[in-house]
Design a protein that fits this description.
CATH class: Alpha Beta
Strand content: 35-45%
Structural class: alpha+beta
Oligomer: single chain
Radius of gyration: 14 Å
Distance between the termini: 20 Å
Strand order of the largest sheet: 1-2-3-4-5-7-6
Number of strands: 7
Bound molecules: coenzyme A
């Protein structure tokens, strides 16, 4: 059973390890620590059997919810964890005052794009060579309508 809750200081080590395993340019523990005191940001973690297996976050920039760091530990992928986390993140983002949401994703990242489309995100364009290590285009996705869960 997946439990979604807010990121706490005790989760930072686990979340940093999952980041480092999943991204070529991962956020550090310090990056996550700074978020804990940022009133405009909300980070959620997913727990399975008491173990942190994923995280995702949103920063409210004048009503625009910028979504970052959506990640699930490799062994726990394909079980609906990202979808559950993101549903909660969108609902909580609305409560924080976000009226639309945006994110970037590598154009080759089919599983992530699939999850985002299932949640209602729509591609609005490509940002060429946005990513490094390896260089790749980003798809820019948006939900323009307020999300009602
Ligand atoms: C993207 C990611 C967060 C998804 O996490 P997850 O917990 O496995 O996601 P879910 O289980 O909720 O959903 C995965 C969906 O992708 C689908 N999928 C898997 N591989 C796929 C592929 N190659 N093409 C299309 N869809 C695919 C699954 O069938 C599932 O959809 P369904 O529930 O409709 O059957 C995870 O793969 C991850 O951490 N990747 C590395 C980090 C990353 O790329 N993050 C996104 C940055 S923008």
């Amino acid at each position: 059973m997946v439990r979604i809750r807010e990121l706490e200081i005790r989760d930072i080590e686990a979340v940093s390890i999952i980041e480092a395993q999943s991204f070529s340019m991962p956020w550090s523990a310090k990056d996550f620590e700074q978020l804990l005191t940022d009133e405009k940001s909300l980070y959620l973690v997913a727990e399975l059997d008491g173990q942190v297996v994923g995280c995702c976050g949103v920063t409210n920039v004048c009503g625009e919810g910028n979504i970052n760091n959506v990640v699930v530990q490799e062994a726990y992928r394909g079980k609906g964890v990202a979808y559950a986390m993101m549903q909660e993140l969108l609902a909580r983002g609305c409560e924080m005052g976000c009226v639309e949401f945006t994110l970037e994703v590598r154009v080759s990242n089919a599983p992530a794009i699939h999850v985002y489309e299932k949640l209602g995100f729509v591609s609005e364009g490509i940002r060429p060579r946005f990513y490094e290590k390896p260089i790749e285009d980003a798809m820019i996705m948006w939900i323009r309508e307020p999300v009602r869960q």
